[in-house]
Amino acid sequence: QVQLLESGGGLAQEGGSLELSCVASGSVYAMNAMSWYRQGPGQQRELVAAINPNGRTNYANSVRGRFTISRDNARNTTYLQMRALKTEDTAVYYCQTEIAPSMGPILDYWGQGTQVTVSL
To answer: pLDDT tens digits, residue range 69-81?
Structure first.
C-alpha cells in the first residue's frame, strides 16, 4: 500500500508563487513516475506535470515555463513550484504515482488533493 499526502495549497495573488509538496509513504520501493493533476470547477481532471525517477519531465502547455516539477527520490517526495500564477490555475491539485514492482501489475495511487485558489 502507498499513501500520498499533498500540502502547500492555499491562496495566492495573480502573478504570485506557491509550492506544493507530495510525500509518498508505504511500499514505495518501485515507484516510477510522479505526477501532478488538477481539476478546476466544472472541469475534467487534467495532467499538469510529470517526472520520472531520472528527472525527465513533461508539462501541460498551459503551465510550461511557469511551473516546475521536481523530486527527491531519497525522501520519496515530489514538488510543484508554481510561479506567475493565473486565475485559471485555480483548482484542486492531486498527486499521483505509479508503482511498478518487478513482479505484479502496475498500480496507480492518488492523494486527497489540495486546493489552490488564485485571485486578482
So the answer is: 999 989 999 999 9
